[in-house]
Specification:
By secondary structure, the chain is an alpha/beta fold. The chain has six helices and eleven strands. The strands form two sheets. A nine-stranded mixed β-sheet has the order 2-1-9-8-7-4-6-5-3, with helices on both faces. It has a two-stranded antiparallel ribbon with strand order 10-11. Strand 1 and strand 2 form a beta hairpin. Helix 4 packs across helix 5. Pfam families: MMR_HSR1. One of its GO terms (cellular component) is mitochondrion. Keywords: GTP-binding, Magnesium, Metal-binding, Nucleotide-binding.
Length: 357
């Protein structure tokens, strides 16, 4: 019996904590793709993911990774502007325990960061903002227990007439939401809170799902991807902890591989799962329309703060997040698309949401 029926609506989908699914057998791992036979690119320090500003697994070449190093002038200006966007005005905004705790927002796009406990969300957020401490890190799984909102980017130009009476103009162009990790000691109410946010938040522009390179897909990961498909939320997958990825050796000591091998395998596994989920949805959540076939790879813990924080794959991730949120990264600056572009995700009314008793 499958963990969650593919036809279950987002409004009825229920999250199962780790203790509830411990009796469920682990899914069969997909076959491994052809191993990478050469380093992802030529250049200095190629043995570490810290050497690259962008690390991407493309669907057209699933067994290898496409990388960009800082010496490449083609995208240097764009990635620099993307880094400035996230770094120059980053600020903690608020915490929310439930959906009703989120302040009213009808102008500023939001992107939510999702992932299992100890997948590295806080480290990822600190690297995204180029600043240590904006999100607290902890070696203890389940450290984050609330949804925490962070504002990034310059203040948008919004006419006063467009604002509700008494509402101050926003100070940031984008809101990034950090969420509690699922899996280890997570509560069943986690799923209710997240599903409600995904289905009802009108300014939500997409989700970034963090998956560790150290592990295979867990049942909770599959549940989350199915929930995003049900809610028709644009999705970008980021593989974290590339520097800790190890390919297991065979019984005779053979096999093995590099961090690039393991990350390419992980990306192929994720892409296969996304395609499986797509077949069971009745929405427009499709490859390169609802979810990105490009899987991004990072090692945020290796990224340096400040001007050089585009390293370890963070440059490519920043550009992908901005694109998903409706911003255009140009050689000269980051430009927000017209605000009248409507949100195309499915909106679920509160009355239609079936809550767990």
């Amino acid at each position: 019996m499958p963990l969650v029926s593919q036809t279950t609506r987002a409004s009825a989908r229920r999250y199962l904590s780790e203790s509830q699914i411990s009796h469920i057998s682990k899914p069969i791992s997909p076959p491994k793709p052809q191993r990478t036979t050469k380093s992802p690119t030529e250049g200095p320090s190629i043995d570490s993911p810290a050497a690259y500003t962008s690390i991407i697994s493309h669907a057209s070449s699933p067994s290898t990774l496409t990388t960009t190093d800082p010496s490449s002038s083609k995208d240097e200006a764009k990635l620099g502007h993307a880094a400035d966007f996230f770094q120059k005005n980053a600020q903690f905004l608020y915490s929310a325990a439930q959906f009703r705790d989120h302040p009213f927002n009808e102008h500023v796009p939001e992107v939510v960061i999702l992932g299992a406990s100890n997948v590295g969300k806080s480290t990822f957020l600190n690297s995204l903002a180029g600043r240590r401490g904006i999100a607290r890190t902890s070696p203890r799984p389940g450290h984050t227990t609330l949804m925490n909102a962070f504002g990034v980017g310059p203040a948008p130009e919004i006419p006063r007439s467009s604002l509700q009476h008494g509402t101050p103009p926003p100070k940031h162009s984008l809101v990034v939401l950090d969420t509690p990790g699922y899996g280890y000691r997570s509560q069943t109410t986690w799923g209710d809170t997240i599903v409600r946010y995904l289905g009802a938040r009108k300014t939500l522009r997409g989700a970034v799902v963090l998956l560790s390179a150290e592990k295979r897909l867990m049942p909770e990961d599959r549940w989350l991807l199915e929930a995003l498909a049900d809610a028709n939320v644009r999705t970008v997958v980021v593989v974290t902890k590339a520097d800790k990825a190890v390919v297991r050796r065979g019984k005779g000591g053979g096999g093995g591989g590099t961090w690039a091998d393991r990350c390419a395998e992980k990306a192929a596994e994720v892409r296969k799962e996304l395609r499986r989920i797509q077949k069971g949805t009745g929405s427009n959540w499709e490859e390169d329309a609802g979810w990105s076939s490009d899987v991004f790879v990072t090692a945020a813990g290796l990224g340096q703060m400040g001007k050089t924080s585009n390293r370890a794959g963070m440059g490519g991730v920043r550009a992908a997040i901005l694109d998903m949120a409706g911003f255009k990264v140009e050689d000269a600056a980051v430009e927000q698309q017209p605000e009248n572009i409507s949100y195309t995700g499915k909106i679920v009314s509160f009355d239609d949401i079936v809550w767990k008793s």
